[in-house]
Structures are given as C-alpha cells and as structure tokens.
Amino acid sequence: MIETVDTALVGWSRGQFALTAAYHWLFVPLTLGLSFIIAIMETIYVRTGKEEWKRMTRFWMTLFGINFAIGVATGIILEFEFGTNWSSYSWFVGDIFGAPLAIEGIMAFFLESTFVAVMFFGWNKVSRKLHLASTWLVAVGASLSALWILVANAWMQNPAGMIFNPETARNEMISFREVLFNPVAIDKFTHTVTSGFLLASMFVIGVSSWYLLKNREEWLAKKSILIGGIFGLVSSLLVAYTGDTSARTLAGVQPMKFAAFEAHYEGKEDAGLVLAGVLKNSEEKLRSHNIRDFIFKIEIPGFLSVMTGGDRNTWVPGIRDLVEGNTEKEILPVSEKISRGILARNMLLEYKEARLMNNVEQTDILKGIFRDRDFINNYFRYFGYAPMAKPEDAIPNVPVSFYSFHIMVLLGFYFILFFALALYFHYRGTLARRRWYLWMALWSIPLPYIAGELGWVVAEMGRQPWIIQDLMLVSTGVTRISSGAVITTFILFAVLFTALLAAEISIMVRQIRLGPKNQEIKI
Amino acid sequence: MKALVSFFSRIFRFYYDGFSSMSWWGRRVWMIILIKLFILFAILRLFFFPDFLRKEFRTDEQRIEYVIDQLINSNNTYD
Question: Would you list the domain boundaries of chain A?
C-alpha cells in the first residue's frame, strides 16, 4: 500500500529545519572569520610587541567571545531534529553522517574548547607564543569543524563513496576518501568558509566606521579597517572564485539546480548568463509546471556556456531537457528515471519478502544485486525517483532559486567594490573624512549575513525535491508524527533563537559602546 | 606521580582563576550558555525531541523493517 504523507507535516518539518539552520548560520560565519582576524592582529602584536595591537586584539576578542558563546550548541538542535523529524533519512544515511559528525564533535571539543580557554584566560598566564598558537588553533579548528559538517551536507547533494545495504537499510561508507574529497564538499567548504571571512571583515569595518563617525578610537579603527579591508578583499575575491568553481561543479552533478538558478528552460550552446532580471509566468507549460519567462533581463551573451564548459560552444541543458530527456545529449527523461527507481524499489521489496520467508538463498542473491556496479549505476542511483508522482515534480522552485542566487551574486560584487574602496581610502588617508562611506560600512554589516543565508536558500531550495540527491525525496525522509508537534517546536525554536539573537546584539552593542578602553577580556 | 598531580593542579588553578575573575559580559554570556544548555537538553531533548526510532521500536530489526517500509511505501505528495 502506498502511504500518503501529510503535506503540512513535510512543510512544517522543512520549515523547522530551515529556521534552526538559518539562525545557527547567523552565529557561525562571524566565529569563522573573526577568529582569523584576531589571530592576524595578535601575530602583529607578538612580532612588534606594541601594546596598542594587544589592546586591539583583546577588543575584537571580546566581540568574538560574545558571538562564540551565544552560538555554542545551536547546531545541536539540528541533530535533535534528525532523530525526531527525519528518522528514516537519518537511518538511511547511516555512517556517512555519523563519521564526519563524530570527527567534528571531537575536534570542536578538543581544539576549540581547550584553546578558547587559553585565548581568554591565558593572557599573562602563558607565554605570548603559546597564547598566539592557541588563537591560531581556535581559528583553524573552527574552520575544520565546519569542514566536517559541510562534508556531510555535500554528500546529500552528491552521494558518493557508499553502498546501500538492504540488510540494514543503510548506506555504508566504502571510501572515506570519496566522501571527504567529494567535489561538492571541496567547493562548499572553500566557498562557505571564505564567505565567513568576508562577513567578519565587513563586521570589523562596520564597527570601526562607527568609531570614526563618533570620533573615537581613531588608531584602532583605522588599523582594523586596514586589516578588515585586506582580509575582506582577498576573501571576497576568493568567494567569487569558489562560487564560480561551485557553479561549474553543480552544472555536472546537480544540473537541475544549476538550470533553476538561471531560469534556463531550453538547452543550448552559447547560453547567456543572466546578471539580473524579473520573472513572470509565461503562457507556456512544461507538463503541469508553469514556465517562467523574463519581463526583462540583463545578460552576458555566451557566458553561461563559458562558465560551464570553458567555451561558448558548450551546450548547457535546460530544465525541459532535464525533465523530458535529450537523446542526442544522452540525458535520461525523468519518466525513465522513475521507471528505473521503481525497479530498484521492487528489488528492495523482493528482498524484504525473501527475508520474511527466511529464504536465505534469495536474500543472498538480492544482496549481491545491490552490490553489483551495473545495478548501482543504472538503477539504484535513481532509487529516490520511485515515489515521484510526475516528472515535473523534479523541478525546484524556480523563482526562489533564481532570485536568491542573483541577489547573492550581486551582493558579492558589491562586497569586492566595498573592500577595494576601504583600502583605497585608507591608502589616500581620507578614510575618516569619507563619512558617506563610513555610514555605508555601518549599514552594510547585515548584507553578508543576508548573502550567506541566501546562499543556503540556493543550495537547499535549489535541490528540492531531494533530501538526498536522486536517492531520497524529502517526503520519504520525514518522520510520520503529528504536524501539531512540529508546529509547537517550530514556535519554541523561533522564540529561543530570537531571544539568543537579541541577547547577543544587546551585549555586543554594550561592549562596542564601551569601547576597547578598560575592557576585561576574561569570559 | 607528583609531576602529574602538579600538572592537573595547574590546569585546575588556570580554569579556577579564569572563572573566578570573569568580566561583566563573561558572567552574562556564561549565564546565557547555562540557560540555553538547560533548555536544550533538559526540556527540548527530553520532552520534544526523542529519537523516534529508539522510542518506537525495541530492536534494530524492527527499525530496519520500519525504514524499509517507508522506502517502499512512501509517495511524493509534496509540491
């Protein structure tokens, strides 16, 4: 019997996960980036021995400490949700998630927790060099923690290095190397971490600009803007570069997501890259899906082809090709993927029945089939398509993907210009007089947060309807519990996280107003 | 042995001094951390986020049965 899933339950479960992940991501990137900025400042202090640099390091360390402490354990909630709201999914992913998350937990505990204590309690108690080493280890440890989480996420986008065992209903890791060096993982890690560096640079410049506007702490503010400007410019260029390589990887492993970014419906060579545009519902339909057309768009001719394959002759598949298939380009239609998925699912059904009847010979044969390379590559890889009602269900929400992606990219260009201007004004010695720039810097603090959240919207909404690309639909992974229970926890989380955010902002604003003078660094 | 005791004693002293001379914001964020951890583990984890498969089924065999049923019988209704 085919079981129908309550759409409200799936929606609320997704909403709850999105809410907690989005709030968690408000705390993480500042920790990632500010830890490196502090480490750079402290390195200058240790090399020069000048007390001003120590005072500056300690000031930014205070703000780092507030953000770090408020953000601690907010990610644990996501793990609670895996067990309660996504139980079938959690079981199905097996040790693919278990291994990276365990490594992350151990590293976070030993590296961050131990050395964070030295960072805050160790001034005047350990040698300068040991203190500096601790600060660098916190910075590196925070990024390495993020690596393991992103490796787990990348596996959901591009499952690799595993084999499905019907006996345990789990995916079992057969190659740690393939999981760790999954191309999506590498791109995701570099893009995400550098976006955190960028955010922290904007934060440092924004806060420093406030001091200049108030005619306070001029030396600290200018030096902070210099470090934030250099770190921010390098980071923003790296964000652009890693964004470009990410897009190229996605074009290969998640072509539907890539096509949705660009609202690219018809495959073609010399495909243009849309810089900005406004979508509308067109008269045309792709099965029951409303095709989106542009009211207007600004496009770089041929650049989408160049981005994808290196030259204008590269053929970029559109959403229609990916749904209906394209024989010439060897793209399977979704209807064929559904048929293959159903065949793989029937094989699992046969295995279940053989096991119920204690038919050892048959279970052994079927287990062998699930290990057969041909079956894995041609059938099991489409396992998740089996419950798909209609081929157009494979299309994500195009407007959400398109607008999230393009606003993020436009903000990315703004950040490059912003950091370049910071360095230019610093070089000319006119920074303190450029009050419009200082105000712009202050009001730009939220922008990298918005860009980061949009990045996650692009990554996660763009891959719908999948919880694991091609292997499991979101509706298959969700736990059948009452949607009322999920709504209750959604509200609880909304209240808890909003309170934490309010606490962070209020303590941070107080410390910034107080300024670096007479600040105590001990947590 | 004496060296080991001295090592742990120094570590204890390090943390003790650190916590006992915390600043205003340090005390405030530690209070928030403790309240947060209490809410997370003593309320949310216990009452709202039980491990579904652990709670509903006693053996791994039953859990596997349930997950296979979900994989075989689910239908996509989410648009």
Answer: 31-181, 263-316, 334-392
